[in-house]
Specification:
Strand content: 5-15%
Radius of gyration: 21 Å
Number of helices: 15
Distance between the termini: 55 Å
Structural class: alpha/beta
Strand order of the largest sheet: 2-1-3-7-9
Number of strands: 9
CATH superfamily of the largest domain: NADH:ubiquinone oxidoreductase-like, 20kDa subunit
Bound molecules: ligand FSX, iron/sulfur cluster
CATH architecture of the largest domain: 3-Layer(aba) Sandwich
Largest sheet: 5 strands, parallel
Order of helices and strands: HHHEHHEHEEEEHEHEHEHHHHHH
Helix content: 25-40%
């Protein structure tokens, strides 16, 4: 197997840290930056610069981690640039290496040190049933830290909260019919606790990496972006998918797809929820601009409050 450390240096000018050193720091880890990697001197330097800009604590409740995976797929800017130049990711349960009590203590240390000056990123829904016991994030001195408890503690300390993904924004899949855990979205939860920290909703199941990165950059450079009625940046969620769909002409001419494998025609008769959905997938596209849902299937309205129940059944017409 090729030694990763022999890979060419391709982006030192972008990150201020050589690709070789960057990859070196990742050796032995699954995917990303963790607290233990701060022992690397080049990373310390890069992270310190980031810290002066903006520390971020990323916590996860009820989700599938798809939101984090989507962010890791960010191509431009690269995930390395985001982590090393845009933000200082102080805690992330999936890509961080630290775990256990030390990791939990680090969360509180960062929150206390940067009280009022950090962003709290929340991925996944918040389960409120049974005193929050459905989601225990860790322990400190045998005290269980629940998702509900941590959001209540850190929420008022953060300068802003980013709810990432439809689970975090509106409850999403965990809040679908049944919902034994009492899953709820961030804004709804904060309201019940009288926490008034500004929230930016970035829905999507998962959200597009550009929506996450773009919202973070906007937040850091120009403050909270203009939001719609559902707390989403209009920048990304201001336009209706159906009104801008490249297949709108087919719809107008009643030229309809008969099945998902039919490459032509409007997808409404096979379940497309584009008319009820506001996002810019039609022009941004996914997978580095390769394709989007309507190319190969239908829009299932993954960015909308009430998803998935309100958009179900996915493959049957809504009208
Ligand atoms: Fe939810 Fe995130 Fe859907 Fe998954 O964790 S928005 S289930 S794609 O990824 O929370
Ligand atoms: Fe509207 Fe969907 Fe048809 Fe596109 S494919 S025109 S979004 S119903
Ligand atoms: Fe979600 Fe629809 Fe965009 Fe697909 S096209 S990502 S289902 S909003």
């Amino acid at each position: 197997m090729k030694d990763k450390q022999e890979l060419p240096d391709v982006q030192p000018e972008k990150t201020g840290i050589s690709r070789r050193n960057f990859l070196k720091t990742l050796t032995g880890t699954a995917a990303g930056i963790g607290i233990s990697q701060m022992f690397n001197p080049a990373l310390i330097q890069a992270l310190e610069k980031g810290l002066q800009r903006h520390p971020v604590i990323w916590i996860q409740g009820q989700g599938c981690t798809g939101c984090s995976v989507s962010l890791l797929n960010s191509v431009d800017p690269s995930i390395a640039d985001i982590l090393l130049k845009v933000i200082s990711l102080q805690f992330h349960p999936t890509v961080g290496v630290a775990e256990g009590e030390n990791a939990m203590k680090h969360v509180y240390d960062v929150a206390n040190e940067y009280n009022g000056r950090f962003s709290l990123v929340i991925e996944g829904a918040i389960p409120v049933a049974h005193n929050g016991k459905y989601c225990i994030l860790g322990e400190i001195e045998h005290r269980e830290i629940t998702m509900t408890g941590l959001v209540q503690e850190l929420g008022p300390m953060a300068s802003s909260i980013l709810a990432i993904g439809t689970c975090a924004t509106y409850g999403g899949i965990p809040a679908a019919k049944g919902n034994v855990t009492g899953a709820t979205g961030v804004m709804a939860f904060l309201k019940t606790k009288n926490i008034t920290t500004p929230v930016v909703n970035i829905p999507g199941c998962p959200p597009h990496p550009d929506w996450i990165v773009g919202s973070i950059v906007h937040l850091l450079e120009s403050g909270i972006p203009e939001l719609d009625y559902d707390g989403r940046p209009k920048l990304f969620f201001g336009n209706n998918i159906h009104d801008n769909c490249p297949r709108l002409e087919d719809y107008d001419e009643a030229f309809m797809s008969m099945s998902l494998s039919d490459p032509m025609g409007c997808r409404m008769d096979v379940g497309c929820k584009g008319p009820d959905t506001y996002a810019d997938c039609y022009k941004r596209k996914w997978n580095s601009g390769m394709n989007w849902c309507v190319d190969n299937a239908v829009c299932i309205g993954c960015v909308e409050p009430g998803f998935p129940d309100a958009m179900s059944p996915f493959y049957e017409p809504a009208y």
